[in-house]
Write a structure and sequence with these properties.
Elements: H1 2-23, E1 38-39, E2 42-43, H2 58-66, H3 71-75, H4 90-102, H5 116-119, E3 130-131, E4 138-139, E5 149-153, E6 173-177, H6 178-184, H7 208-221, H8 238-247, H9 252-265, H10 270-273, H11 276-281, E7 303-313, E8 316-330, E9 336-344, E10 347-355, E11 361-368, E12 374-379, H12 392-426
Antiparallel strand pairs: 1-2, 3-4, 5-6, 7-8, 8-9, 9-10, 10-11, 11-12
Helix pairs in contact: 1-12, 7-8
Length: 427
C-alpha cells in the first residue's frame, strides 16, 4: 500500500496542474454576492451608508426579469427636456406602469414604525439599531411613541401625492431623530437661500442623491407632478436634481433598502437601480463614466426624427411618413448598445445592436405592423457580458497541449525516474 501511494502521488500532482491550467482558459466576471438575512417575510438592509453600489443585487435583477423588462428596453423610451411634457412622455408612463403594477401592498402610517428595523438598519441589522435618515445617528429600533425619533415625509404631507396612499409609502417615509425632522419642516430641497440642504445635519454622509431619487419615485409612481418644482414644491429645479443625482451616486445602503422595501410592498424605486433613467426622463445625456449599480454607464437621450415624403404620379398622391428613434447607450464595460426604431406608415422595425469590448457584435431586428406580421431575427449573438468569445481552435489546441504535457510527465515517471529508482535499490 505504501508503494502504491508513492506511485499515485505524482499522478495526482500532474492532474492537479492540468485542471488548474484548464480553468485558466475560462474568462468570466465574478458576480457580487449578497447574503440576505430574513425575519419571516422581511429582509434586513444589508448595505452600508457611504459605500458605493457597483452592482445590481440579486433581488433587483429578479424584479426586472419577473416583470419582463430590461434596461435597454426602458432606455429606448423617450422622455422630454420640457418639464411640462415629461408626465406625458413614453418613458414616464412606462416607469409609472412598472412600479404601480408591481406593487402588491401599500403600507399604512402605523405599520411603518415596526418595519424600519429591517429597512433602515445597516449591515443586516448589526448592530440592531435604525440609522436616522439625515444624520445617520443610531435611533430605535423600538418605537418610543415619538419621544426620540419619528417619521419624516421626504415629500411633505402638505405637498401630498396626487392619488392613492403615497403619503404613507415607506419608500418615501423615513425614520429620523425628532430634532432633524422639525428643522426641515416642509421646505423644498435645494441649494439657494430658503431651501433645505439635506447635508446640513451631517458631515459624514451625502444625502443629496438619496432625496433626489426619493422625490423622483413619488413624482413618477404616485403621479404628483404639480408639486415637484420650486419653493412651493419639493425640489428647487431640474438642474439641481440632476446635479445631485450625479454628485451623490447610489450607495449599498440605498440598494439594500430597495431590497427590503420590495419584500414589503412588492415594488422598487427604479431610480435607485437605474439612476441613468433620471437623465433620460428629462431628455438629458447620461454623464460620462457615471457610477451606478447597473453599470450601464454613459449614454445619450433618445433622438427622434420624422420625415414625410409626398409623391404625386398621374393624379395619385402617396404620402410616406418615417419616424425614427435612436438610442445609444455606453456601459461601464466599454460596450455600446444602439437601438433604432423606424416606423414607416403602419410598419415598425426595431433594431438593437450591441458592440462589446470583446469585438463581438449582436444584432436583433423585430418587424411588426400588419395583422399577423411579427418577425424577429438575431445574428452574431455574443456571449453574456463578462465572458470572452474564444475561437474553437483555442479550446482544442489548449486541451491538446495539456494532454501532451500530462502524457509526457507520465512517460518520464514510469520510463526513467521509476526505472532509475529501482536500479538504485537493486544496486
Amino acid at each position: 500500500m505504501k508503494h502504491l501511494l508513492k506511485r499515485l502521488l505524482p499522478m495526482v500532482l500532474v492532474l492537479t496542474v492540468c485542471v488548474g491550467m484548464l480553468s485558466s482558459l475560462s474568462f468570466s466576471a465574478s458576480a457580487a454576492t449578497v447574503n440576505y438575512v430574513y425575519s419571516g417575510k422581511y429582509i434586513y438592509n444589508w448595505g452600508t451608508r457611504g459605500t458605493l453600489a457597483t452592482f445590481l443585487s440579486p433581488n433587483a435583477e429578479d424584479f426586472y426579469e419577473d416583470n419582463g423588462v430590461t434596461y435597454d428596453e426602458l432606455a429606448s423610451y423617450s422622455g422630454s427636456s420640457s418639464i411640462s411634457s415629461v408626465p406625458s412622455s413614453a418613458l414616464y408612463k412606462k416607469l409609472q406602469t412598472l412600479m404601480k403594477n408591481a406593487q402588491t401592498h401599500e403600507t399604512s402610517y402605523g405599520e411603518t414604525r415596526y418595519q424600519y428595523c429591517y429597512t433602515d438598519c445597516e449591515n443586516s441589522g448589526s448592530p440592531k439599531t435604525i440609522s436616522s435618515f439625515y444624520s445617520g445617528a443610531a435611533i430605535g429600533p423600538k418605537w418610543d411613541s415619538g419621544d426620540t425619533w419619528n417619521r419624516e415625509h421626504v415629500w411633505p404631507n402638505s405637498k401630498g401625492d396626487a392619488s392613492g396612499n403615497g403619503e404613507n409609502d415607506i419608500m418615501m417615509l423615513r425614520p429620523t431623530a425628532v430634532s432633524e425632522n422639525s428643522s426641515r419642516g416642509n421646505k423644498a430641497f435645494g441649494k439657494s437661500s430658503g431651501y433645505f440642504n439635506p447635508n446640513s445635519k451631517n458631515s459624514k454622509y451625502d444625502l443629496r442623491g438619496d432625496v433626489a431619487r426619493i422625490c423622483l419615485y413619488v413624482y413618477v409612481r404616485w403621479g404628483n407632478t404639480t408639486k415637484m418644482w420650486g419653493s412651493s414644491g419639493v425640489m428647487e429645479s431640474k438642474a439641481v436634481l440632476l446635479e445631485w443625482m450625479e454628485a451623490d451616486p447610489v450607495d449599498t445602503w440605498e440598494l439594500g433598502r430597495n431590497d427590503s422595501v420590495e419584500a414589503i410592498t412588492g415594488t422598487r424605486n427604479v431610480f435607485v437601480d437605474y439612476p441613468e433613467l433620471a437623465f433620460l426622463l428629462f431628455g438629458a445625456d447620461i454623464p460620462a463614466d457615471y457610477d451606478s449599480p447597473s453599470g450601464e454607464g454613459s449614454g445619450n437621450a433618445p433622438v427622434n426624427t420624422t420625415t414625410t415624403t409626398t409623391t404625386t404620379r398621374n393624379n395619385n398622391t402617396t404620402t410616406t411618413t418615417v419616424n425614427t428613434t435612436t438610442t445609444t447607450t455606453g456601459r461601464n464595460d466599454d460596450s455600446v448598445t444602439t437601438t433604432t426604431t423606424t416606423a414607416v406608415n403602419n410598419t415598425t422595425t426595431t433594431t438593437t445592436t450591441t458592440d462589446r469590448n470583446d469585438d463581438s457584435v449582436s444584432t436583433t431586428t423585430t418587424t411588426s405592423g400588419k395583422p399577423g406580421m411579427t418577425t424577429t431575427s438575431a445574428t452574431n449573438a455574443s456571449t453574456e457580458p463578462g465572458k470572452e468569445n474564444l475561437p474553437p481552435f483555442v479550446w482544442i489546441g489548449g486541451g491538446a497541449a495539456i494532454l501532451v504535457i500530462a502524457a509526457g510527465l507520465a512517460i518520464w515517471y514510469f520510463a526513467f525516474y521509476r526505472k532509475k529508482k529501482q536500479a538504485k535499490i537493486e544496486g
